Amino acid sequence: MAVQPDDVLDARGLPCPLPLLKAKQALARLAPGQLLEVMATDAGSWRDFETFIAQSVHEMPAREERGDVFHYWIRKGGEPAS
């Protein structure tokens, strides 16, 4: 993937649900529209991130598996409309 993320989170070696929790913390530090790359080795993170994105204002323009490492690119969404 040739996208340059604004921040990178290395969550390799962390068990479920830590990769997702750490990603939520990292997203909180970003401005809307910025891109976070997450690297995780927990196989359950594939489903966890998919569910999280479906229930949030964020987008996941790409995700891929490279060997035993899962890579997720998450674009922070804007504040939800009230």
Helices and strands, in order, run as EHEHEE
Low-confidence spans: none
Give the termini distance in whole angstroms.
35 Å
Report the strand count: 4
Broad structural category: alpha+beta
Major sheet attributes: 4 strands, mixed
Strand content: 25-35%
- Mean pLDDT, rounded to whole units? 93
Which architecture name does CATH use? 2-Layer Sandwich
- Spatial shape: globular
Which percent range fits the helix content?
25-40%
CATH topology annotation: Translation Initiation Factor IF3
Family: Belongs to the sulfur carrier protein TusA family.
Domain UPF0033: 9-33
Pfam family, one: TusA
Organism: Halomonas heilongjiangensis
Write the SSE topology.
Layout: E1 7-11, H1 18-28, E2 35-40, H2 45-54, E3 59-66, E4 69-75
Question: Would you give an account of this structure?
Answer:
By secondary structure, the chain is of the alpha+beta class. The protein has one domain: Translation Initiation Factor IF3 (2-Layer Sandwich), CATH 3.30.110. The protein has 2 helices and 4 strands. It has a 4-stranded mixed sheet with strand order 1-2-4-3, covered by helices on one side. A hairpin with a 2-residue loop joins strand 3 and strand 4. The longest helix has 11 residues. The protein is globular. It starts with 6 loop residues before the first strand and ends in a 7-residue tail after the last strand. The model has no long low-confidence stretch (mean pLDDT 93).
